[in-house]
Amino acid sequence: MTPTPGVRAARAATRFVVQQHDATTLHYDFRLEVEGVLRSWAVPKGPSMNPADKRLAIEVEDHSMGWGEFEGRIGAGYGKGAVIVWDRGTYEGLDDVPVAAALARGRASFRLHGEKLRGGFALVRTRAGAKPQWLLIKRRDEEADGEGPVGDRPASVVSGRTLEDLR
Ligand code: MN
Question: Which range marks the domain in which residue 114 is found?
């Protein structure tokens, strides 16, 4: 599907990034630029291009835009461990309201233009409260793929390094 021309396409591109993070437990941090910050979710199994996979995404604190560039080792404290930029690119919202409003109501759809992740995705909130839980789901479109790029494309899109290289 090509992006619909018009208002959404005319806006400045908003960014997304997925960082793979070898902290206490290995996970992927999925981040969407929303109103100048990176809204963030920890996805234990990582995103999938397979619409049959519904990936748990635990909402975590917003991160600064600059954090999305980070690759390297976090030396101490919460999140200690290696980080690579697993994927990045731009995205656009697919809802009838801005992404911030769609997230506030607990269901947002968007199209990713990354190097690994492409096409429509949805975030659906399944549990509210202090640590909201969501599902990250690939939408059925021509970019969908029965095989995810998570396992077979482990390298950073920035440096070509893997987490293993940083250990
Ligand atoms: Mn993390």
Answer: 14-144+151-166
d(CA 6, ligand 1 centre) in Å:
35
Count of domains for the chain: 1
Please report, in tens digits, the pLDDT of each residue of the chain (167 residues total). Answer: 455 555 554 456 899 999 999 998 999 999 999 999 999 999 999 999 999 999 999 999 999 999 999 999 988 887 889 999 999 999 999 999 999 999 999 999 999 999 999 999 999 999 998 889 999 999 999 999 887 777 788 999 999 999 999 88
Distance CA 53, CA 88 (A): 21
Question: Considering the domain boundaries, does residue 89 fall inside one?
Answer: yes
Residue 2 CA, ligand 1 centroid: distance in Å: 32
DSSP 65: G
How many residues belong to the chain?
167
